[in-house]
Design a protein that fits this description.
The complex is a heterotrimer.
Chain A (H helix, E strand, L loop, with lengths): L1 H28 L3 H5 L6 H10 L6 H13 L13 H36 L4 H14 L3 H15 L12 H30 L2 H8 L4 H38 L5 H10 L3 H29 L1 H4 L1
Helix pairs in contact in A: 1-12, 5-6, 5-8, 5-10, 5-11, 5-12, 6-8, 7-8, 7-10, 8-10, 9-10, 10-11, 10-12, 11-12
Chain B lengths: L13 H7 L5 H15 L1 H4 L37 H37 L1 H16 L2 H12 L3 H27 L3 H8 L4 H37 L11 H7 L9 H28 L7
Chain C lengths: L5 H6 L9 E14 L2 E14 L3 E5 L6 H8 L8 E10 L2 E2 L5 H7 L4 E4 L3 H4 L6 H13 L3 H14 L5 H5 L8 H13 L5 E5 L7 H18 L3 E5 L2 H7 L2 E6 L2 E7 H6 L4 H8 L39 H5 L5 E4 L2 E3 L6
Parallel strand pairs in C: 3-8, 3-9, 6-7, 7-8
Antiparallel strand pairs in C: 1-2, 1-4, 4-5, 9-10, 10-12, 11-12
Helix pairs in contact in C: 5-6, 5-8, 8-9
Classes of the chains: A mainly alpha, B mainly alpha, C alpha/beta.
Amino acid sequence: MLRFVAGRLLQALITLWLLSLAVFVIARVSGDPVIILMPMEASSQELAALSKELGLDRSIAHQYWVYLQNVAQGDFGRSFRYRRPVTDVVGQPLLNTLWLATSAIIFSSVVGVILGVLAATNRGRWPDRVAMLVSLLGQSLPAFAVGIIFILVFSVTLGWLPTSGLGGPAHYVLPVITLGWVVTASVTRLLRSSMLEVLDSEFIKLARAKGLGKRTVVFKHALRNALVPVVTIIGMTYGVLLTGAITTEVVFTWPGLGRLAYNAVLSRDFPLVQFCVLIFAALIIGLNFLVDVSYALLDPRIRA
Amino acid sequence: MDARVLPASKPMTLMRAFGWMKDAPKLPLAMVVLVLLVALFAPVLTPHDPNMGVLALQQKPPAFMEDGLFDYALGTDRQGRDILSRLIMGARVSMAVAFICVVLSVVIGTVMGLVSGYAGGTVDSVIMRIVDGTLAFPSLLLALVFGVTAGPSFWTVVAVIGLVSWARYARLIRGEVLLLKERDFVALARIAGCSPARIIFVHLLPNVANTIIVLATLQIGNVIITESSLTFLGVGVPESMPTWGRMLDDGRNLLDSAWWISAMPGLAIISVVLAFNSLGDWARDVLDPKLRAL
Amino acid sequence: MTILDSQSLESAAAPARDDDVVLRVRDLKTYLYTKRGVGKAVDGVSFDLRRGETLGLVGESGSGKSMTCLSVLRLNPEPASRIVGGQILLRGEDLLQKTDSEMRTVRGRRIAIVLQDPMTALNPVLTIKDQVGETLRLHQGLRGRTLWQRAVELLKKLRISDPERRLNSYPHQLSGGMRQRIVSAIALSCEPEVLLADEPTTALDVTVQAALLKLLKDLQREAGFPILFVTHDFGIVARMCDTVAVMYAGKIVEKASTATLFRSPAHPYTQALLRSVPDVLVETERLASIEGQPPSIFALSQGCAFAPRCPHVMDRCRVEYPSEIRLAQDQTVRCWRHA
C-alpha cells in the first residue's frame, strides 16, 4: 500500500512539473507581455527597457532557470494589477472557490448516489425515468445558462434566493446546484449502470440466497462494488467542476479563484494568470492522486 | 475452447455500425440528421441575412405570439436580426466547430493512445504524464489566455478545445491496447514480421474503432457546450459568425423582456446535445458496453 | 474417470418412506417474459428430495435446470421471469405462499445454494469473514468471539487449511477451489435442510473437482441433508447422485435411479446424451452428437419438444405432449414410444 501511494505521489509530482513547464512556455510564446503592458505610444527604447527589467530579453531557458530559482524561494511573481505578490492575492479567492466546489461535489455525490440507487433499484419505473431525465438535462445545458435561468426564476421572479455574492447558506444554493448539476448527472448515470451490472452478478445472487434483506444486499453488497468506478469519476469531474467554476463564479459574481483568473486574463495580469493556472492544476492533480488512493482503499484488488 | 486462442472479436466497423443504425433511437437520430442537413445547406436555407438587422424590427416576438411576425417565425434579436436565420447559420458554425474539434482530438488521441499502449516503457510513461497534465489543465482558462492574447477567432476556439480533449481518447485507447496486445493475433502478426506501424494501424486500430466512435459521438455535445461557455466569457468565435452559444449570451440581459432571444438557441443547444448524447449512449451500449463511465 | 463407480451403484436408494421427503416440488412453472414473448423456462417440473438423497438434474444449457434451482429459492430473476404455478413444499410448507420476509428466513438457513462460478460468487470487496459470518449473524444471531469461533470451525469442517488467515483474506487472494469451499461453507453454515448445487464444480480443475465432490458427499453422509445437484456432466452424476432427472426444454423427460438410467435409458434424448459421453461403458465407436438445435422455449409446439431431433419420432409426437409413463418402480419417462 505504501509503495503504491509513493509511486502515485511521484507520478503526480512529475505531472505537475510538466504542466508548470507548459504554462511557462505558453505564457512566453502566446504574445509579448511587454507590448500589452506598455501604452500604445511607447517607444521601442521604452519597450526594450521594460523587457530587460522583466528579464524577457534573455533566452526562454534562462528565464525558466530564473523562474525556478524564484519559485524555490516561494516567489511566484507579482500581480501587475494588484501590485502585490500573487501568492497574497490568491488566498481568499482560493478558499471561496474551494468552499463552492466542495459544497458542489458533496451535493452532487449525495444526490447522484441517491438518484443512481433509486434508478437502478426501480429500473424502468418512474423513479428511474425521473433520475434519467434530471441527469440528461444536466449534461445538455451549459452551466452559465442554467445559472441565468435559476437567477431569473428563483431570485428575480420568486425572490426566494439571493442573486449573487457571498453570504449565508442561502447564497450557496443556486451556485452549488448550477455548478454541481453536471457532476450529479454523470454520477447518477454511472452509478445506475454499474449498479445494474453489479445487481446482476453472482455474488448478489448468493447474498440474496443467504436470506439477506434487500437493504443489506443493495447497500452492503452492491453499492460498495458499484461505487468503485463512481469514485474515479467524482475525482475526475472535480477538475471539470473547478474549471467550470469560472463560468458559475462569473454568473453569480462569486469572489473565487475562477473569477479572479477571468479578470486577470481580461486585464492581462500574466503573473497572476500563470499562478492561477498552476493552482487549478495542482488541485486537480492532487485530487486525482487522492482518487487513486481511495480507489485502492475501496477495492482490495488494486492494492497488490 | 480457450477464449484467448480465438481471433480478436470482430470489431464493429463503421459500415456495420451504419447497418445497426436502424435500431438507433428514432427521435435523436432524426434530430442529428436534421441539424447536419441544416448545417450543410445553411446559406440556402436562411430566410434573411443572419447578420443584417432591421432596426424597425428589434426584439420582435416569435410568430405564435401576439405582435409576432409571420415572416420572422422565431422572432428577432436586439439588433432586429432574424433568429431563425441566425439559428440556421449558427448550426453550421457550431457543427463545424464540433466536427473539427472531434477530428482533431480523435487523430491526436488515437495515435498517442495506440503508440503509448503498444510501445510501453518510457514512451508510455512520458505520454501518460502528458495526458495527465492535459487532463489537469484548466481548459477554459487556457482558452481564455489564448483568446485574449491571440484575439477571438474560429481557429483559436477549435485549437484550444481540440488540444485539450485528445487526452481522454489517448487514455482509454491505451487501456484497450494494453489488453489487446496480449492477444494471440498480435503475437502472430509480430511473428509474421509485421512492422510496429503495421501492427498498430492495421491490427490494433480496427479493434479500438468502437471506442473511438462512442467517445466521438459523446464529445460532440461537450464541444457545443464548451464553445458556448467560451462565447459567454467573451473569447468565442468572432461576432460575424453566429453560434448558438453567442446567441444564448446575446439575450441574457433581456430575459425578462425578450426571453426568446436566449430561449431559441437554448432550446437548440439542449435538443442537439441531448440528441448526440442519446445516440452516443446507444452506440456505447451496442458497440462497447464497458465504456459506461463516459 | 469411470462413469459408474461401485459406491454410487450401491447407494442407488431403495424407495424411501414418504415422510422422508424434505422438499417436494409439484408442477412448478417459471415463465420468462421478454419482448420476444413468453418463454416456458420451467414448465411443470415435479420431483421429491428425500433425506440423505442426491437428485441430479441433468440437461443442456438452457434446458431450465438452473432456473428450477433458483425458483426453489424464489430467486429467479425478476421481473424478467415469474413463477406462475405449482407448489414448492419444504416439509409440507408451501414456499410459494410465503411473504418475502418469511422467504428470507428460509434462504440460507433452511435451503442453501452453491453457485456455479466460485470466481464471481464471492463479493470482491468484502473479506471472507464478512461473507461467511453474514449467515451466522443473521440466522443464528452469533456475534463477536462466538461468531469468529464458529466461522473457524466451519472452515475446518470444509477442510480449509489455516482458517484464521483465510477468514481475513479477500476472495481474489484465494484459488478457485478454495473459493468454492468457502461458498460451500457459507451454504452449510446454518445446517440447511436442503442443499442446492448449481453446477458447483464446472469451473474447477478435475482434481479440485473430485476433492470438492468427495467433501460434499462426506458432509452429506454426516448431516443427512438432501442435495439437488444441477449438472451436465454424467461423470459427476455417476459419482454423486442417487436419482437423476433429465430436463429438456423446461420439462423433466425422464427420471430414474442412477443405476437404471445408465443401464437402460428410456427417453431418446437421454440415450443421445449418454451416447455423447466418451466412455468405455457405453460402447460407441465415436462420440455421437445430437442432431439439430435445442428448441427455443419461446416457440414450443404442442407436441414433444424433442420430436424435431428425435430419431424415433412418430406422428403422435408432433401433436400431443407425452404423459408420464412409469416403466419401473424407479423409472418414469415422457415418451410415446413407451406408451
